[in-house]
Amino acid sequence: MWSLIDSFYMTVTTLSTVGYGEIHPLSTSGRIFTIFLILGGVGTVIYILTGQVQYFIEGEFGIRLGRQRMESQINKLHDHFILCGFGRVGRRIAHTLKQEGAKFIVIDKNAESFAKALQLDYLAIQDDGTKDEVLKKARIDQARGLIAAFGDDADNTYVILAARDLNPPMPIIARANNEDAIKKLQQAGANHVIAPEVIGGQQIARLAVRPKTVQFIETVLSSKEEELLVEEINVNEDSTFVGATIKQIEDQFPRIKIVALKTEDGAILLNPHPKTIIGKSSSLTLFGPSKQLQTMEGCCIKSKT
């Protein structure tokens, strides 16, 4: 009969794999029991240790590693959009930006919104987007544009003021939560202000009055076979387009339609005459396949020399 201390001693030396030797000779039954004890005990210890290591890697260490990786990606951003606000409207904006292949980063101090952005694999910062240091962290100096989409017009105003100070020439698009805020956001420095409730109301009214027209436009713009866009392209004063007529450009790009011409003095010509000549510092509003629009944009900035 083994004593309690002898049994405990043998169990410890066995499970710890030290194995000094047997205190008492083991019978065949004792050796079979020891085999199962070793397999079960060592297996249990390995399982517990594996779980602890996994918890550590996926827990605090994993979170820290993920943050470092995200910060590294953010520090490399350029020619991107900064999306301030990730509520219902912000999420739709982000979804469309992703579809368009645009680079962007989300800023929202709400924990739930931040978590949702990470879940969708977006670059995100959980902080107050109205603060200069947060916008700097989002590399506003290298940004292509900023979208203020907070649910509060005051927050959008503060974001616009901060962004305009940090990057004066950058285009800014703002969300207005009511019509009264549109003028104030423009005064703050927004280039374009969109009121979702106004746009939604207009769209509903157009569908009611001219359903076929609206459905046609939506079908064309959302075509999955080939992406068709309406795009405004600025004509560089040294561009090969300067001095050319509308007809010459449309003949060069047969699938592109020039729907409007904005002249140097700011006048807008809708459906310009084919013989209209393109002047310096003008802009063209075009409709057609995205690939041809990209080719045209290259011609617009290409020098004659």
In short:
The protein folds into 3 domains: 4-58, Orthogonal Bundle (Helix Hairpins); 77-200, 3-Layer(aba) Sandwich (Rossmann fold), CATH 3.40.50; 227-301, Regulator of K+ conductance, C-terminal domain (Alpha-Beta Plaits).
Give a topology summary.
Blueprint: H1 4-15, H2 28-58, H3 60-74, E1 81-84, H4 88-99, E2 104-107, H5 111-119, E3 123-125, H6 132-137, E4 145-148, H7 153-166, E5 172-175, H8 180-188, E6 192-194, H9 196-209, H10 211-221, E7 228-234, H11 246-252, E8 257-262, E9 268-270, E10 283-289, H12 290-301
Helix pairs in contact: 2-3, 7-8, 9-10
Structure report:
The protein has helices at residues 4-15, 28-58, 60-74, 88-99, 111-119, 132-137, 153-166, 180-188, 196-209, 211-221, 246-252, 290-301, and strands at 81-84, 104-107, 123-125, 145-148, 172-175, 192-194, 228-234, 257-262, 268-270, 283-289. The protein has 305 residues and is α/β, with parallel strands linked by helices. It folds into three domains: 4-58, Helix Hairpins (Orthogonal Bundle), CATH 1.10.287.70; 77-200, Rossmann fold, CATH 3.40.50; 227-301, Regulator of K+ conductance, C-terminal domain (Alpha-Beta Plaits). The strands form two sheets. The protein has a six-stranded parallel β-sheet, with helices on both faces. Helix 2 (28-58) packs parallel to helix 3 (60-74), helix 7 (153-166) packs parallel to helix 8 (180-188) and helix 9 (196-209) packs across helix 10. The mean pLDDT is 82.
